[in-house]
């Protein structure tokens, strides 16, 4: 299997958007698995790449995005996932982690051919990023208990799409690196 | 509303892949609406853009792709949709109509800001192309009776995703230009 | 004429690479025109976009890139050009300002159709960015006295290429907005 | 060294544009070296990839582009270079062979890491394609006697840029594969 990296999507978040009410309980449920996934990736020395929306704030850097998220009312969803010194960070402007970002270039530089995806939203940015990885012949694992959704039905369908149509491996976070 | 083009996806097809048994009946059902959609687009003078997989045949041009499809056992699904003199044609190598193709460039040249999507497969290339259009701030209409699926449940979910998460308008082909 | 933005290329720099000896005198000469160009752009309320190499430091944000440049031996070439509160900032990994970056997306969001280029290196990143702008149908002005080079002959040729083959307007910085 | 492919740029051409008078004599001079380069590539079983402008004719396929070029007054510049059964063909809409085309994807599929460039115009599409190859970490050889120019001075500068700034190998066509 190719070299693996963990990609954690849109978790530096102030949760002040309209779907937050539906999203937050799912994030709370997925948070422990995300934390363990990052810990295990770091223990194994694998790259951990934060890909995060800039929320239209082109003047901010990721320190400011993190700070805004950490001082908001949902800081408890951000604090346990804060990047460490070795984390990579890529800002995205739109949904997919790959669209008009240097993610594909960074993965090539690192020699990564396999992504473990976690974060939010299962039926949106996670799905779109899985597609854009598959289209680039990267293999994809989705840590099923470490992704959060807004619409549970669409999330289930998205997971099925990733498994059936994008050849993604769907496993619990605890089995992501096995 | 911005200038409209019809994008017809992957309909020049030999249907010799493993999912054909599930796909063909859905294509047969959607075919009349596709035919009427193209007729109406041409009557209105709107651009009709065929975006079609090259099936790994980099040496073929679209005439050969069409010919192969027209001489296969499912020619009745291809013949009524054959491109005319004014049709545009873009070859894609992977799922999305936009990935590593000049489609975005062509749409910019034509001044098109609104796509009417038809073709196949609803829960795959149609969904992915809708996403890549939405990400580029193009507005999208899906002609619901003019798209064909393999998995009806995933197709329904895909249509919901396009409507809820990509702001797509979901209408019958007969209302696509209204 | 379309809305204008200034793009300043690779000026947050530690000048510790092998070509620095040839580059620094040219930067010193171009610096006053760059300063005036940014001042005038800000006076007019035009977007100023810093596009800067990340020097392979994917973990750094632009504050750190700026800080490194400001504490090096060539801080006098950086200090007068430091971004202000309203500056945009885009990190690039490779030569062109457009390659695998969100610059094209940001320009679209801002409604910008005309770029005034300054910075370094005339015959490298400035040339490549002018090309990638021209290819996208953005119009380009090069502030001739506000770009710095390594090889004067190649810089002259690059300016000719931009003028003849990319339809760029070549003017002194003082005339960039006229 | 990585697997090699020959990329021949914009040689299916009607030469009815405004720079043709300056270009044609240079093409006539470079033609024999191009012919030998293609012959040698085919003898060695290397992929030969035609990347050609579509001249805004989105409805044409490459057979029609070839036919138009073969029936024009400069057919003698096209006939000896016509694609064979094994040639790959990619249509480009703008200058660089890589911009909004599937070339990078095709090269990845073929496992190609080294391009030998020939064709026209040295100081335009050849230069831009060399840049876009270098940016993608592909290595580049330019067959110096198998590229044609409009402006000899800019062509010399372009060759210097490719050698100095893009790490291209500049050799006669006869040494392109050694």
UniProtKB/TrEMBL annotation, chains A, B, C, D:
UniProt-recorded name of the protein: Maleamate amidohydrolase
Keywords tagged on the record: Hydrolase
Classification via Pfam families: Isochorismatase (PF00857)
SUPFAM superfamilies named among the record's database cross-references: Isochorismatase-like hydrolases (SSF52499)
Keyword field contains tRNA-binding: no
GO molecular function: hydrolase activity
EC assignment: 3.5.1.107
InterPro entries: Isochorismatase-like_dom, Isochorismatase-like_hydrls, Isochorismatase-like_sf
Gene field: nicF1
Hydrolase is among the record's keywords: yes
């Amino acid at each position: 299997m190719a070299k693996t990296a963990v990609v954690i999507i849109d978790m530096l978040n102030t949760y002040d958007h309209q779907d937050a009410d539906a999203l937050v309980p799912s994030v709370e449920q997925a948070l422990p698995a995300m934390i363990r996934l990052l810990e295990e990736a770091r223990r194994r020395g694998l790259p951990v790449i934060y890909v995060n929306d800039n929320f239209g704030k082109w003047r901010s850097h990721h320190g400011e995005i993190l700070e805004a998220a950490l001082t908001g009312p949902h800081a408890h969803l951000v604090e346990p996932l804060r990047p460490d010194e070795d984390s990579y960070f890529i800002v995205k402007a739109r949904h997919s982690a790959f669209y008009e970002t240097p993610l594909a270039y960074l993965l090539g530089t690192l020699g990564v051919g396999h992504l473990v995806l976690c974060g939010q939203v299962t039926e949106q940015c996670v799905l779109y990023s899985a597609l854009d990885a598959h289209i680039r012949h990267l293999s994809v694992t989705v840590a099923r208990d470490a992704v959060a959704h807004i619409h549970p039905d669409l999330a289930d369908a998205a997971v099925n799409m990733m498994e059936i149509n994008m050849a993604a491996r769907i496993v619990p976070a605890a089995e992501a690196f096995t």
